[in-house]
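Protocol step 4 of 6: record predicted structures for both targets in the notebook before any analysis. Target 1:
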Amino acid sequence: MTHRIHPNTHTSYPGGGRDWRATATYYALLPLRLFLGVTFIYAGLDKLTDSGFMKDSGSGSIGEMMRGVRDSAAIPDLVDLALKSPVGFGYTIAIGELAVGIGTLLGLLARIAALGGALISLSLWLTVSWASDPYYYGNDLAYLMAWLPLVLAGAPYFSLDAALHDRRRERVAGGP
C-alpha cells in the first residue's frame, strides 16, 4: 500500500506553479533513497563477490568477523545465532542487502524494503558496530536513522509503487 502526497499541496513535477522550496520539499527523500539503494546493492554485491568473506574462518571472513565482535556486542545471542552458520548468515545478509537496495531504487514495496534496511542496520549496530566509541564512529546507527523516513514515507514518486497505484486508480475510475 502506498500513499501519495496530496496533489493540492504539492506538484508532481518541478516548476508546476510552486516555488523552489515546495519543489525541494517534494523531492527531499529522493537523494536519500538513491544513496541507500545504491549503497545496499553495493554492500550486497561486495559480500557476494569477495572470495574471502563467505567463509567460516580466515582473515576477512564472516565467521572471523562475528567471533571478533561477539564479546563486545549489545546482544551476543544474535552473534551466537549467526555463528551457528556464519556462511549462511553472510549469504542471508548479502541477499537481504541486494533485495533492500533494489526495492528501494525501484520503489517496489518501498516501505517494506526500507523496513528491511532498517532491520539489517539495527542488527549490525547491535552486533558489529556496538562497541564503536564514541557511538557516532559506527555507521550502522546512522543508516538505521536514514531508513526511518523511507519507512514512513515510502516512495511516492519515481517508483513502481506509485505507477502501480496510479494504474489501480485509473482502473477504478474507468470502471469494469
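Target 2:
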Amino acid sequence: MDLTVVAYAVYLVISVALTVWVARTLSQNGRIFLADVLQGDEKLADAVNHLLVVGFYLVNLGFVALYLKSADTVKQARGLFEALSVKIGVVLLVLGVMHLGNVYVLNKIRRRGIMQREQTPPVPPQGWTAPAGKPRAMPATGA
C-alpha cells in the first residue's frame, strides 16, 4: 500500500498547526516588545505586529506548500515516520530561523531608539561651558 498521500496529509496538518501556534505565540508575546521598540506607540505596535504576523504566515505557509512534494514513495509505516520527521524538522528549523531573524532586526531597531533617546538632553542647553584644562584669561574691560 502506498502511504505517500497519508504522509502528505499528516505533514500538512502538523506543519500548518505548528505555523499557526508559533505565529499566535509570537504575536501575543511580541506586542509588548514592539511597543517598547516603537517608544510606547501602541497603535503603531499593533499595526506592525499584524503586518509581521501576515508576513510570517505567507513565508512559512508558502514554504510548507513548496516543500510538500516528496521524491520517494512511502510504502511502509517506517518510511512514513522517516519522511515526516525530515519534513517537519525542516519546517521547525525554518520557523526558528524566521523567529530569530525577526527578533534580531527588532532588537537592532530597539537599540537604535535607545541610543537616540540617550543622546537627546532632557532640557535644551542654556549656555556654554569652557573646556576643562587651561584657564582662560578674562577679557579686559575698559573701566
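Step 5 preliminary note on target 2. The CA atoms of residues 35 and 84 lie 38 Å apart. The mean pLDDT is 81.
Proceed to step 6 after PI sign-off.
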